[in-house]
Amino acid sequence: METRQIQYFLEVAKREHVTEAADCLHVAQSSVSRQIFNLENELGVELFIREGRGVRLTPLGKIFFERMKQVWNMMEDAKREVEEYLNPEKGTVRIAFPISMAAHTLPSIIYAFRTRFPDAKFQMSNALYYDLIDGVVNGEFNLAMIAPMPNLEKEKKIKGAILFTENIVALISVRHPLADRKSIRLRDLKDDPFCVLPEGFIFREQVVQACNDVGFSPQIAFEGKDIDALKGLVSAGLGVALMPEMTLVDNTPRSTVMIPIPDASLTRTVGVIYPTERKLLPTEVLFYDFLLTTYERLNEFRN
Known about the structure:
Elements: H1 3-15, H2 18-25, H3 29-43, E1 48-51, E2 54-57, H4 59-86, E3 92-97, H5 105-116, E4 121-126, H6 129-138, E5 143-146, E6 158-173, E7 193-196, H7 202-213, E8 219-223, H8 227-235, E9 241-244, E10 256-260, E11 267-275, H9 282-302
Helix pairs in contact: 1-2, 1-3, 1-4, 2-3
């Protein structure tokens, strides 16, 4: 089995199309088809079901795909580790994050890190909560910032640390009857239409659970695909939303106000996780240590 065969197989499996895979790899379609044929011939099984111009994985092909993704990621990590060993300050950090950290949290910490290590590079992607955990375990990335922090006693294949705890606040229209309050109780919003993230987002689950804990089910009127969409809905006067406080730093929309909610349950932990079964690459170790040190200092300053 050759590395080229693995690379071609992964690209075809991901795109479910030989021609598109060949275009991405900048090789002839016939070359990709030949390598896939040779791989199947060597293994003695069919990995793909051919459907016109497209393909899809067989059941055994799906198993092989998951294993080869891990193998390929390990090979790429090994190459990067050799390169970064000589100069970790010029290496690459592969990190994923939830969409709620895209606007402020992650850019701010990366900016601070790059101020110290200007040649460091980042490969970033965002994902849903459980996909962040799975991605770290499977090797799609080695680090993930995540909120809330998973229970590490239950998640045996990841380790990590809590960086800070942030408040959940209410975002309401300036025309809302409670807009002039310095703080409100969550129950004060029981008759309001709520703007929330779609099903599958862990923050949506936290919002619903927090409302249930104080005795009401939120009237979900609108769903927005991300935090910015929720801000737009509230700004238009279509409802209220609960937000992680960090998403509103220097970015509270016009025609809205942010109001604290002192309910004890309305906080979330923000942390960073990494795999137990793989070593972080040298540049990732630098970034992980930088995260811990930076937020430890910030937490001391706040206290």
